Amino acid sequence: MQKKSWKQPNGCGEKGRERNRTSLIILQSVNRSIFTSAVSPAAERIRFILGEDDDSPAPPQLFTELDELLAVDGQEMEWKETARWIKFEEKVEQGGERWSKPHVATLSLHSLFELRTCIEKGSIMLDLEASSLPQVVEMVVDNQIETGLLKPEMKDKVTYTLLRKHRHQTKKSNLRSLADIGKTVSSASSPAMTHRNLTSSSLNDISDKPDKEQLKNKFMKKLPRDAEASNVLVGEVDFLEAPFIAFVRLQQAVMLGALTEVPVPTRFLFILLGPKGKAKSYHEIGRAIATLMSDEVFHDIAYKAKDRQDLIAGIDEFLDEVIVLPPGEWDPAIRIEPPKSLPSSDKRKNMYSGVFIWSRYVFCYVSLIFVFISFSPKPTSPHRGWIIPPFGENPWWVYLAAAIPALLVTILIFMDQQITAVIVNRKEHKLKKGAGYHLDLFLVAVLMIICSFMGLPWYVAATVISIAHIDSLKMETETSAPGEQPKFLGVREQRVTGVIVFILTGISVFMAPILKFIPMPVLYGVFLYMGVASLNGVQFMDRLKLLLMPLKHQPDFIYLRHVPLRRVHLFTFLQVVCLALLWILKSTVAAIIFPVMILALVAVRKAMDYLFSQHDLSFLDDVIPEKDKKKKEDEKKKKKKKGSLDSDNEDSDCPYSEKVPSIKIPMDIMEQEPFLSDSKPSDSE
Predict the structure, then answer these.
(1) A Gene Ontology molecular-function term (predicted)?
(2) Whole-angstrom Cα distance, residue 500 to residue 505?
(3) CA-CA-CA-CA torsion for 647, 649, 652, 656, nearest 10 degrees?
(4) What CA–CA distance (Å, rounded) separates 236 from 276?
(5) DSSP 460-529
(6) Which of 44-48, 406-410, 642-646 has the largest mean confidence?
(7) DSSP states of 661-681 as a string?
């Protein structure tokens, strides 16, 4: 077998490394060039990896820990925990007394390129069968020797270093960086010290069982039961001339003693030992791989990768999504707070469709009706029996005339029932049971007949109460990473609460002597709360706030990106006028034609086509909610980055042409004559 050696390709020293970095950046830019395919090779490979049919369950949550090699009093070396990840990064503060607040990890672009090189040049061992840390270390070291990446005489020293004790944040120690103590650490590599340590119990420093500190760690509450660990070990030693790099994925996650802060089995190990003088670079590379392991996409790739190229494609995909901040306009020492909601890596579909255009108006007589109902005491006459005579003493023509208001009431009940049903059954609630629109409407019709003969209020789906009922049954994750908001899992679908509500409603008829002692302001307060709570997030209310809000304090609403502010205010003004007219009409004796006026809003909406462009109306009066439309636009931008040709042709003023020639740069030319070198081009070039 031909042996490989770690060498600086294409030059040496700082100049050579700079030329290599330039070549790599040029290669990256060529892959994403406007003259080549819009879909990068990395993205195509990732789609193939993640798109394969696999009956295995979803990969578990990963806890990633970064341990660095430090020395105690210049003699003994230990692995010290310096950072940890679930979703966000937590660092051990400089004093070593506490953890920092969770924050978004900020990485240097250089560390990501260095990590890519490490994966490209180091040992990659996937689905390794091992049950203990000494066994893993032995197999990794032997693999490095077999491939020519490590000299055989270095085996004992590397093994001794990798099997040193691991001290976590729960333990305190006077540790100093190996770079700060200089040559005093050379005793670790001297023949006498090495022989003494290797013949002692150094291989037993790592126990095969969790210690007491691990079992008492309260951080376990933040992790799900099936969580696994990813351990990152980086450090500098004075006996290596070239970096020792290995990425290991165990076939089965196993407990490796006190290797991890919490007692969870380890699945991944990333090891980086290098020559002295580059401790900061090793630290940043360790942070880079730890951050990638906490990324949802790379996390799945790490579990499903079959070779080195899959991991490299995962890093390239991560680089495709990286946003670079100018160094002079941002302080890297600033820690970015975790966002309140994380964007999903999955493609989201439209939350719901087929909702009436004017449903937002109805939802907004309904919410306001609950607000104002507290000032309108909706009582019944005590001088009647249980059954109402259907004809009574009314003249015959009343029966015919009653058909007109009956039609209006039918329209109102149909709208109230169906719009509420659509809102409750929208996809964002993640309901598993099917929607019974026809069955619900049939039951409402039967109940209307019974209630009409008994003189009882008609039953329809109450919009505000139904939404409040759905919100009360929402389920969220019990465990969440530090800084991460609980994830919405769905709605607890059952009939118990609904049955209890209607039973209590029926019992309330016989509880009148008790209920009369409840102060009316209490009941009005309930209606007021439900009405105000339901208005939260309605675009109409958000636009009303904009009328009194300075420009610099206005939120980043999606319609403000595309519609001029004066047009937004005009649309809001027209809505306010319509709302006021409807409320005035409802408060008079002409309230019987209230459903007709709601239908008239359709004509008002049609008339708006002559005042506003379709572009403006698509953002001001679209069926997709504001928050979902914003997510849709962000995902649309991501699709452009990933090379959706259809999306580019629709949204770009200069559609992509397949006839544009692509740029191909031979690798041998780049290695011999880099583009940014100082040499002049030859005649052949």
Answers:
(1) monoatomic anion transmembrane transporter activity
(2) 8
(3) 120
(4) 5
(5) ---HHHHHHHHHHTEEE-S---TTPPPPEEEE---SHHHHHHHHHHHHTTTTHHHHTTS-HHHHHHHHHH
(6) 406-410
(7) PPP---HHHHHHS-TT-SSPP
Residue with tokens 């039953």: 459
CB-CB contact of 600 with 577 (8 Å): no
Distance CA 18, CA 109 (A): 14
Adjacent-strand bridge partners of 336: 104
Quote the tokens at residue 610. 């002559």
Distance CA 205, CA 166 (A): 9
Residue that has been written with the tokens 């169906």 in this structure: 418
**3-class secondary structure per residue, 324-335:** CCCHHHCCCCCC
Sequence-separated contacts (24+) of 37-40 with Cβ below 8 Å:
37/643, 37/662, 38/643, 38/644, 38/645, 38/648, 38/656, 39/642, 39/643, 40/316, 40/317, 40/320, 40/642, 40/643
Which token pair is 284?
């940043």
Other C-beta atoms closer than 10 Å to the C-beta of 435 total 13
Range with lowest mean pLDDT among 51-55, 267-271, 311-315: 51-55
Domains of the chain plus CATH, in order, are 62-170+205-325 (3.40.930.10), 366-478+485-537 (no CATH)
Measured between alpha carbons, how far is 318 from 112 in angstroms, rounded to an integer? Answer: 9
Quick one: which of 600, 627, 628 has its CA closest to 361?
600
Per-residue confidence (pLDDT) for residue 207, from 0 to 100: 57
pLDDT in tens, 605-634: 888 888 898 888 888 876 555 556 666 666
Provide the β-strand partners of residue 247.
Answer: 124, 270
Residues 666-685: pLDDT tens digits? 555 444 544 434 444 444 44
